[in-house]
Amino acid sequence: MDGDGVANVHDADLDGDGVANVVDPDLDGDGVENVIDADMDGDGVANVVDGDIDGDGVRNVSDNDIDGDGIPNDEDDDMDGDGIPNHKDYDVDGDGIPAHEDSDIDGDGKPNTVDEDIDGDGIANEKDHDIDGDGLTNDEEPVSLDIDGDGILNDDDSDIDGDILLNEMDADMDGDGIPNTVDKDIDGDGIPNPHDEDDHEPAAMQVKAIKRAKRDLTEAVKQSDMDGDGIPDDLDEDKDGDGVPNQQDDDIDGDGIPNYQDDDIDGDGVPNEHDVDRDGDGLLNEEDDSDGELDDIETRPEDELLWEGEIPAQRRSRDHINELLQLDEQSNAREKAIDNVAEVILRDIKRTYENAIKPLEVMYKYRDLSNRHFGDPEIFSKPLVLFMGPWSGGKSSIINYLTDNEYTPHSLRSGAEPSPAYFNILMWGNETEVLDGTQLAADYTFSGLQKFGQGLEDRLRGLKMPIKLLEKVNIVEIPGILEVRKQVSRLFPFNDACQWFIDRADIIFLVYDPAKLDVGPETEAILDQLKGREYQTRIILNKADTVKPEELLRVQSALIWNISPLMSSAQPPLVYTTSLWGRPYQDGAPARLLLAQERAFLRDLRTAVDKRIENKIASARRFAVRVRNHAKMVDCYLNTYYNHKSLFGNKKRIADTIIENPQNYHIYEGLSTLTNISRYDLPDPEVYRDFFRLNPLYEFKKLSETCSYFRGCPITKLDVAIAYDLPDLVGKYKRMAETALATVEQKEAANAAGGGAGGAAVADKSEADKNKKTKS
User: Fold this and answer.
1) What is the pLDDT of residues 241-268, one digit of tens each?
2) What tens digit of pLDDT does each residue of 13-40 get?
3) Considering only CA atoms, which of 426, 435, 431, 434 is closest in space to residue 466?
4) Could you please report the per-residue DSSP string of 368-408?
5) Distance of alpha carbon 331 from its chain centroid, rounded?
6) Do 181 and 172 touch, CB atoms closer than 8 A?
7) Cα 292 to Cα 633: distance, rounded to the nearest angstrom
8) Longest dimension (CA), the chain
9) Which residues contact 557 (CB under 8 A, 6 or more apart)?
10) From CA 436, how far away is CA 462, in angstroms rounded?
11) pLDDT, tens only, 224-237
């Protein structure tokens, strides 16, 4: 305004007359004194409609000095600077609305119904003898006027004195400082109680007052807008503007206090115990969920890992599980002896890997070709049991049943609806503990999952429990496969992550529901990843007791016919038809068949545990074969390259020509003919195109150039490891295991005989048997 380069909202001298605004009688310099100036700040907006009367950049509702005279509102006798003292001013805040119609008399942004100081004089309502600041004390307010100045006449006001307590709950209804019990005019209308018939007296006021309270509250909610988004709070689905809908918000009013601890859930200034609409949704408490949350509909968040279900009255016996999985105390000595032998063999596997496999793996950069790695985590980890299949097939229920973790606070969530899309990993721990993806990725066994990115880590959930079975195995549940027509993009390579678990699994169970036998693209892709693992794959037709016996055979046949063509095996897959959970079988179900199938499933699972060393050796040999094939493939490309390279030729162009068109140089056919390598074990040419773009072909050495006089040829060591060293470890393990078990049996027999002559005879017999076995 004064051309000094300082915007009006920041200018301490608005009109540039050298007199500070706070003491300037003519703020805008128009020659009209502030007290009679209809536009005090000279912005062209009349005071009665100006949201910033003094032009200081602070809205009136937030301005502690509305008229800019340097006197705070609560000390200012003329709050709006119009020259009329507040007690004589029909418009205290200068907003153009008369006080008896103004829902915010002092212009502080708080509706009168929730304002603790309605007239803004610095005196709280309960201590103010003139609540509405009109110059009349509360006792002098005429009949049918408005003591608290909230725009609701006293006769119709459920809170006459505006202290936020309903009349029927207010110990001083009219706010005159005299308790109702001794006040001769309880409602402050000037009519003594005995002659007053306006239903404000204790005998008759309850029903009508409550009805008026509901109406007043509804009006107040309609006028309030907590987050300032222009949507009244009673219509606003996100009242505090934090992006969380009220029904899912643990803190509806955004005051930092959870709803269950908040004395005023909806932040309307009315304590919960006096609030007829606690959550501020415009519905009375008796008509809705009064805390605003859907906890009486959904007790847990949608992506919660754990679920506590209803405990059935009867449950099936678990004795056969402990017996067949050898989880009883009698098996501890044998398990310990076998574990000692296993440690020796695992160290031999590691030695073979370090000496024979790793040199060529590093030299020919096999890790840049494939995600199928091999190292200490794969060698020394526990056996891995993998459950996968369509959604709601019963995978989580089976895991809960096997681990005796049904109906506990830490049970995996199960139900008819699809469970949360997490990779659930169960491990042994001294105490029950839920782990997130970051903790799992830092674990020694699952550290290889870090290469799939943060997207996968966010979908990992771990559960440590002190359960006997988890001392022997780790159990993994892959998210249920949901067949959709439109391909859904994921934040991580889902199939590659599944392949990582498949490569490390000792036994794989595909779980199906009799009502969901369809096979779509997602299932087909997963089954294709099981190529080469058919011998480790089993199918469980779960929930078989829900199907009539005469239909069960047809359902099982349909399942085999659907899946068999998609698996790379001439033999049909092994199917277990059972119902794996603790509930009793349904009436009419073939109980003997289901129990027999369950026992066969448990024996199969135990066999996988017993063969963990054989599986480790087989995994090491498979990896060694892949490394050998890769090394020979690179060597074949190199020989072709050197055969076609000329003295002055462009080596990059020659290499690219060979890489882009390997069929023209018969690389794959020649490698299959000259060596004992199957074409079906070799990666596709597209894989090698990507590999050689990352690692130029001419930077590798030919296999013949890797040999030395003292160390020999790495490829020869690798061939010897594949053909002799690794297979010999299987025989070594069996011999050592038999010896260890014989020693345990000898000790048990000696203990049973009490250490006497009988015990000595048994010991001699056991020793003779052992010598006989050794000779044979």
Assistant:
1) 777 777 767 778 777 777 766 777 877 7
2) 888 888 888 778 887 888 878 767 778 8
3) 431
4) GT-S---SHHHHHSPPEEEEE-BTTSSHHHHHHHHTT-TTS
5) 39
6) no
7) 66
8) 128
9) none
10) 6
11) 677 767 777 767 77
In the chain, what is the straight-line distance between the N-terminal and C-terminal CA atoms, in Å? 112
448, 440 in Cβ contact below 8 A?
A: no
Question: Which amino acid appears at position 640 of this protein?
Answer: T
Retrieve residue 75's tokens.
Answer: 């000390």
Contact 259, 292 (CB under 8 A): yes
> DSSP letters of 94-123?
SSSS-TTT-SSTT-SSS-TTT-SSTT-SSS
> Are 64 and 37 a contacting pair, CB within 8 Å?
no
Q: Residue 412 forms beta bridges with which residues?
A: 306
- Is 693 buried (19+), middle (13-18) or exposed (0-12) by CB count in 10 A? exposed
Report the SS3 class of residue 74: helix
What is the band of 94 on the pLDDT scale with cuts at 50, 70, 90?
confident
Say if CB 636 and CB 683 are below 8 A apart: no
pTM: 0.57
Type and span of the H or E element at 509: strand 507-512
Tokens 């100036």 — which residue? 37
Neighbours of 654 (CB within 10 A): 18
Answer yes or no: are the C-beta atoms of 590 and 553 closer than 8 Å: no
Torsion of CA 205, 209, 211, 212, to 10 degrees: 140
* The dihedral sign for the CA sequence 261, 265, 271, 277: negative
CA pair distance 329, 664, nearest whole angstrom: 65
Please give the full DSSP string across 435-478, using - where no structure is assigned: E-HHHHHHSTTTGGGGGG-HHHHTTEEEEEE--GGGGT-EEEEP
- Among 233, 115, 212, smallest CA distance to 164 is for 115
Exposure string over 477-496, b if 16+ CB within 10 A, otherwise e: bbbbbeeeeeeeeeeebbee
**Phi, psi of 415, deg, nearest 5:** 165, 180
Report DSSP state, residue 37.
-
Beta carbons within 10 angstroms of residue 441's beta carbon: 20
Q: Which of 363, 396, 414, 434 is nearest to 705 (CA)?
A: 363
Q: What does the alpha-carbon distance between residue 9 and residue 54 come to, in Å, rounded to a whole number?
A: 9
Q: How far apart are CA 304 and CA 549, in angstroms?
A: 36
Residues 6+ apart with CB under 8 A from 231: 225
Q: What is the pLDDT of residue 139?
A: 64
Return d(Cα 235, Cα 222) in angstroms, integer.
8
433-435 β-sheet, strand order: 433-435, 460-465, 423-428, 474-477, 384-388, 507-512, 537-541, 574-577
HEC-encoded secondary structure of 690-749:
HHHHHCCHHHCCCHHHHCECCCECHHHHHHHHHHHHHHHHHHHHHHHHHHHHHHHHHHHH
Both tokens of 340, joined, read 């000692």
Q: Write out the E strands in 515-601.
A: 537-541, 574-577
Contacts of residue 204, Cβ cutoff 8 Å, sequence gap at least 6:
none
Q: How far from 645 is each of 635, 648, 664, 688, 703, CA to CA, in Å?
A: 15, 8, 16, 20, 18
Which helix H or strand E contains 511, and what residues bound it? strand 507-512
252: closest CA among 237, 269, 270, 273?
A: 237
Helices assigned H by DSSP within 135-233: 206-223
The residues with which 510 forms a beta bridge, in sequence order, are 388, 539
**Which band of pLDDT confidence, cut at 50, 70 and 90, is reported for residue 75?**
confident
> Contact, 114 vs 268, CB < 8 A?
yes
